[in-house]
Amino acid sequence: MGLMTLGMLLFATNDALVKAHMGALSVAQALGVRxxxxxxxxxxxxxxxxxxxxxxxxxxxLVVGRSLAEGLAVFFLFQxxxxxxxxDVTAVSQSMPLFLLPIAVLVLGEKVSPVQWALVILGFIGIxxxxxxxxxxxxxxxxxxxxxxxxxxxxxxxxxxxxxxxxSATVTFSTVSxxxxxxxxxxxIQGLGPMGVKQTGMLGLAGLLLAAGQAAIITALxxxxxxxxxxxxYTKTAFAVVIGILFFGERPDLITAAGIGLVALSxxxxxxxxxxxxx
Length: 279
Description:
It comes from Phreatobacter oligotrophus. Residues 3-130, 141-270 form the EamA domain. This is EamA-like transporter family protein. Keywords: Membrane, Transmembrane, Transmembrane helix. The chain crosses the membrane at residues 36-55, 67-85, 91-108, 115-131, 137-154, 166-189, 201-221, 233-249, 255-275. With 279 residues, this protein is mostly helical. It has one domain (2-271). It is 73% helix and 0% strand. The protein has twelve helices and no strands. The chain has helices at residues 2-21, 27-48, 61-83, 86-93, 96-106, 114-131, 142-159, 168-190, 197-223, 226-229, 235-247, 254-271. Helix 2 crosses helix 9.
């Protein structure tokens, strides 16, 4: 539980570093530079932990598709972070269970109980409160945050169909390296901007924090069942809100705070198995 919480703190800090230093750069270039350090960091962790890093299955269509879905999600995420408060974006991007349940019914044929449907509706009410579509403060960039969530859902559903002989380490390494390559390719097409030592260092630090967060989560999932550590994934929203207040001067109003709370609460309850049909 502590490792999962640490991973979420590292992820939130990584997001904040990129948000703070991508104003003069395209999102693609910022993600590409971060990706170089993240790829090196993940590879170093896997080797240091004794995990055999094999490229068998690296180019499997489902593995590549999962990695591209992750890349598109991250691109949408930082486009949204550039325009919106970090706490709002993080809360919406973590609403994956709200989208996963309907897809689990349609694609995987799983059963969903009335309690779970009620939690999904509760979470969507939270998203509406964050977006405030009928107010003058409505920001269309909320669509980018929702796009992030949908891409994350596609990423997670894809895992269900990846052949079991492909190691999880291969999938993890594919994710960070494919995102890096795709971001650098897009940045090159868009035109690379000049970067100072400080900016490069901060994006490099963000990449290493991302790799460290991945390491913490991998270790946590090895030590305990997903049902025990999964709900702690939502501590990232709390960290993001605090970071937004302390470092970006963001002050969520009561309606937004209520929406963030509803999204996090519904996600935690779904992740903890409330209302899950018995086999």
